[in-house]
Amino acid sequence: MRSPETCAPDGGRGRTGRYALRMAAYVVVDIQVKDPVRYEEYKKQALPSVTAFGGRYLVRGGAVTKLEGDWTPGRFVVLEFPNVARAKEWWSSDLYRPIKAIRHATASTKMILVEGT
Q: In this structure, which topology does domain 23-115 adopt according to CATH?
């Protein structure tokens, strides 16, 4: 269940008179680390960049158990942002750009942005 801070009136309560939830956004990342030593620097710098845009880590490199299919992720990360706009601002920001370059140099990444409820 979401905290009260994530609830907002639905534009004057619309027709239903109910409160609407703002759509959180999730950045889901499958990372194959190629240079673990240098990747540690990325991890140190990434956290403050995420929080600067209202984001937080939900999953950060925990154990992965395959339940179905042939997907075997390496390092798995899930970030939560208040909305899609903030996630995109973080990803394309001047703050994150040099940090992203470290990730590109030390790992292969598959990354998606998904809108949640």
A: Alpha-Beta Plaits (3.30.70)
